[in-house]
Amino acid sequence: MQFEVLARCPTTRARVSKMTLAHGTTMLPTFMPVATQAAIKGLTAQQVEALGVTLILNNTYHLNLRPGIKVLQEAGGAHKFQGWKHNLLTDSGGFQLVSLSKFTKITEEGAMFASPFTGEPTMLTPEESISIQHAIGADIIMQLDDVVSSLTVGPRVEEASERSVRWLDRCIAHHKQSGRREVQNLFAIVQGGLSPELRDRCLDEMIKRKDEVAGYAIGGLSGGEEKDVFWRIIAQCAQRLPDDRPRYSMGIGFAEDLLVCVALGVDMADCVFPTRTARFGVALTFKGPLNLRLSKHAKSFEPIEADCPCPTCSSGVSRAALHHSVTLETATAHAITQHNIVFQARVMGGARDAIMETRFPEYLRTFFTNYFGDEGYPEWCVNALRSVGVDLLEGKPNAKVQKGDGVKWEYSDVA
Ligand SMILES: [Zn+2]
């Protein structure tokens, strides 16, 4: 991996960088769409490519179950299997084990789970996770970490954080002896729950291993914790992680979360939210999400967003037409999915341009004004951006601020 910081925001900790991997260059900050089963639901690899996306995420857990490693190896890796020419990141499989299987048992050796097909007990070790990711052939691979919900408290959080460091060492050793370090880049995952002390200890240990890892992820968040706690952990981790390594916030996809994370120094993020919510009929826009299933769109003859370059908006499909067919036609879900992927890319591309042109604070202020409009700014966003020198309320004595975690959007009842 070649990683080069090209520009820094003089006010916030945001930066623009260029990450070159075996399958091309990706400019950061970026949002990575999630292609769970080696396909973004509803779209072909060529369609995703045409939207300008250069880095996607595949789930190791799902690929390992189906089509399975043997098929992927015969195909020559996941890139060839899915016809994807650009960069690819795979997770370690650990998160799905914990979230999808209630029988998963974590031991020092690895994660023991019941195979969803045969029911047989199956062990995923750190070494095995790396071997599977080698067979998949992703450009960025993730360590197996010991994942606990961000709502877990007590000694289990400390145990998971410390075990994640030990498992990182096993992943490093296994990756090193594979001879694949030139083409596949291992990322560490910082754990430590919501405790600043545990996060610091995990950061200390993982930063010591800097020469052995290509980048760092911030894990263990986006699990229902309070947003005011979430951003403080992101800020702590992003500030301490080495400047010459990319920083990846896992499971972040709301536009306001993405921009706050970028301002705090994050370079990469992924989430199923933009594509999943599209399948429920919700289109993301710079004026907030639109639930196209609501009858108020039945006579709205404008596109989702007039200035959007996505295939859906630029072909002039009206909100009314989408509303009419959203529950009937899978093609409508695909049309909204394409729009939402382009929306995420525009939010992040706009951030990159603004950082390069030293106007990122203005970009943030404009975005938040348009996006939250009369609803009022979420208080946690105001607090987070103030911590890096941007005051959303400056010059706006009448601006509204929402307490708690922020707006309950139109998608909240359907997504
Ligand atoms: Zn569009």
Task: Pick out its properties.
alpha/beta; TIM Barrel; eight-stranded parallel β-barrel; three-stranded antiparallel sheet; 16 helices
Protein described:
- There is one protein chain.
- This protein has 2 domains: 2-272, Queuine tRNA-ribosyltransferase-like (TIM Barrel, Alpha-Beta Barrel), CATH 3.20.20.105; 278-413, TIM Barrel (Alpha-Beta Barrel), CATH 3.20.20.105.
- It is 40% helix and 17% strand.
- The protein is built from 16 helices and 18 strands.
- The chain has helices at 45-50, 60-65, 69-75, 78-82, 94-100, 126-136, 155-178, 196-208, 227-240, 255-263, 273-279, 311-314, 319-325, 330-356, 360-372, 379-386; strands at 2-8, 15-21, 24-28, 30-35, 55-58, 87-90, 105-106, 111-114, 121-124, 140-142, 185-190, 215-218, 247-249, 268-271, 282-283, 290-291, 377-378, 401-402.
Strand order of the largest sheet: 4-5-6-10-11-12-13-14
Task: Give the helix level as a range of percent.
Answer: 40-55%
CATH class of the largest domain: Alpha Beta
Main beta-sheet strand count, sense and barrel state = 8 strands, parallel, barrel
Low-confidence stretches: 411-415
Could you tell me the mean pLDDT?
Answer: 93
Task: State the CATH architecture of the largest domain.
Answer: Alpha-Beta Barrel
Structural class: alpha/beta
CATH topology of the largest domain, which one? Answer: TIM Barrel
What is the count of β-strands?
18
- Total domain count: 2
Count of separate DSSP helical elements: 16
Compute the CA-based radius of gyration.
21 Å
Strand content: 15-25%
* Distance between the amino and carboxyl termini: 36 Å
CATH superfamily of the largest domain, called what?
Queuine tRNA-ribosyltransferase-like
Bound molecules: zinc ion
Morphology call = globular
